[in-house]
What we know:
The complex is a heterodimer. Chain A is 32% helix and 8% strand. Chain A is mainly α. Chain A has one domain (38-165): Rossmann fold. Chain A has a three-stranded parallel β-sheet with strand order 1-2-3. By secondary structure, chain B is of the alpha+beta class. Chain B has a single domain, classed as Beta Polymerase, domain 2 (2-Layer Sandwich). Helix content of chain B is 21%, strand content 22%. In chain B, strands 1-2-5-4-3 form a five-stranded mixed β-sheet. The longest helix of chain B is centred in the last third of the chain and has 12 residues, at 100-111.
Amino acid sequence: MAVIEKIPASGLIQRFPGGGLVLTTGESVLKWGKASSLWPLTFGLACCAFEMIAAGASRFDIDRFGAGVFRASPRQCDVMIVAGTICVKMGECMKRLYAQMPEPKYVIAMGNCAVSGGIFYHDTYSVIKGTEALGIPVDVHIPGCPPRPENLLFGLMKLQEKIKAEKSERR
Amino acid sequence: MNGAEIFGLLKIKIPDAAKEDQTGAIIIPKGMLLETARYIISSALDFDNLHCITAVEKNDNIELIYTFYSMKRHRSLTLKVRLAFDDLNIESLAKFWKSADWFEREIYDLFGVNFPNHPNLKRILNPDEWTAHPLRKDFTHPDFVKKPRY
């Protein structure tokens, strides 16, 4: 008697044609799962947020990459998409939000402002010159003013590649 | 009633008032602001809306530009007051027009002009612990990058 027939309701289980085994390592399955279910923080700072919203809606559909579950709490998030201009006052909030996110956590700097200050680089007193100027490490930079939703999706795919390639003792 | 007639009425009340040729704005001395405000909000002129207060830093003074509008009579008035750098204090208009409250807080925040008798004079936009006033020409900050001239 095969093992499968001992399972209750085994009639509902169909045999895989040809049978066979999938060989993998636990770690790569873990990484695949991690990369395929990135939950972003609902965190739009300026006009780039609209491109992020468009990427979340049905036309571009960020859900195809498993990253459509925008959470309103940093404690449930994996990735912070910094979408927009970082003001001095918002910088403090951002540092706190980043600190509240559980490990492993990733940051996508979306748009020129989040990369380097963008058009607000010169002659402004209230804008922080990029996410890294705040001391928050950035995994993927997406240039553009604002980047199109496709650029955001491309950045997301690059982040997934990075997660799949990272060494296990990284964090 | 056009601008010249308003100026004529104001000139009777405030003899030191002067008209700026290019803009048509009326320049009044700093000490006469409260009296002017009391007059233009009264039934003679009916400027019931303080539309905006702006500040400009000139070479030797800071100029406050008050824009009034009359909802009843559909006309506007621009007043200018010049403040010397050694005495950046001017009476608050918040008791006449409620909108002056936030405008004056903004000017205090960005230019460092003090408004005695203001109900709540503290910074409106920038962090409370800042001491500098960012729209002044002499403003500097370690992270401030001046735009190069091409």
